[in-house]
Amino acid sequence: ISLGQGEAGILVVGDPDGQYSTIQAAIDDAKAGDTVMILPGTYREGLTVSKEIKLIGSSRDEVIITPEEGKDLGIFVRGAANFSIESVTVISSGAAINVSRSSGKIVDSFIAGGRFGISFSGTGMTLEVIDSHITCYLGMDNEDHLETRLAGIYAYGSATVIAENSVFERNGVGISLTNDIKYQIQNCTFTGNTIGVSLGGDATGSLVGNIITKNVENGILINSSSTTTLKDNLFYDNIWHGLDLYLNRCTECECGGEEFNGTVVGSGNVFKSEDEICPIDYWDETFYSFDEDLGKSEDED
User: Fold this and answer.
1) What are the residues facing 127 on neighbouring strands?
2) What is the pLDDT of residues 58-87, one digit of tens each?
3) CA dihedral in degrees (29, 35, 40, 46; nearest 10)?
4) CA–CA distance from 228 to each of 93, 106, 181, 300 (Å)?
5) Which is it for strands 167-169 and 116-130: parallel, antiparallel or unpaired?
6) Phi, psi dihedral angles at 124 (to 5 degrees)
7) Which residues pair with 116 in a beta bridge?
8) In 19, 142, 276, 278, which residue has its Cα 20 to 30 A from 243's Cα atom?
9) Positive or negative: CA dihedral 156, 234, 221, 231
């Protein structure tokens, strides 16, 4: 769709009404501010985005992006000041989406990656992941144990990660953050991962209103030397611990290291039992409460 000079354009990909047969061709022709609209179909191509554009699918159930045989990167975003990927499915045995030195958002998408679902690095950049479902390529349609090196989101550097209203299911680690990453994780569900959230380095931020359930080792594992704020999260039916500091003070499982150098603050967190929180004697009484009925309505369904 051709618009007047200076106005954003819409480039349509796919049969029967698209101008382009491949997404990359439309990306190459797009100008900053344009939108690439993707009609239903399976697109076997690896994409590179290096400009301020929007990629919008008809729906994440109808638009599937997967690299051609022999390739292992779904979408590579680099040097894009303000990109958007919306309403698509991206499946790759390697990295589904690699975001480097870019700011933008991934919305209403299904992401299944091998080594990473989404990898993100940069300085001063911000990545938002909203209303999406992140899982591991190797964890689809099976119950095999997943190694913790397989991350749903892996972010490092000195940047900001925002995850809202998303599901992280069957990853080695749902979200893995390190270095000087700032983060806000809100109203997400972490279920069936080996570790739901892993915080390391000087990663600093908050987890608010999340559901942490049925993770194999730890729901949230904190090995950060900075401040973590946990508020109004629910922890239940995790196999090891729902919340764990990296401390060797749990005599039964002997998890963690020798000392914890970070700070954890917050309130309103609810645990199904004392088994969900380790070490139990670390926390202020306003930080947590117990409810043995957590998750029962889910089991009944």
Assistant:
1) 104, 161
2) 999 999 999 987 788 999 999 998 999 999
3) 50
4) 32, 24, 12, 34
5) unpaired
6) 80, 10
7) 95, 151
8) 142
9) positive
Please count the other Cβ atoms lying within 10 Å of the Cβ belonging to residue 220.
Answer: 29
Q: What is the dihedral of CA 115, 118, 123, 127, to 10 degrees?
A: -170
Q: Please, which pLDDT band fits residue 247 given cuts at 50, 70 and 90?
A: low
Q: What is the pLDDT of residues 202-222, one digit of tens each?
A: 999 999 999 999 999 899 999
Q: What percent of the chain has pLDDT over 90?
A: 76
Q: Collapse the DSSP code of 204 into the 3-class scheme (helix H, G, I; strand E, B; otherwise coil) and give the result.
A: strand
CA of 109: how far to CAs of 57, 64, 166, 167, in Å?
9, 10, 9, 11
Structure tokens at 201: 């380095």
Rounded Cα distance, 168 and 164, in Å: 11
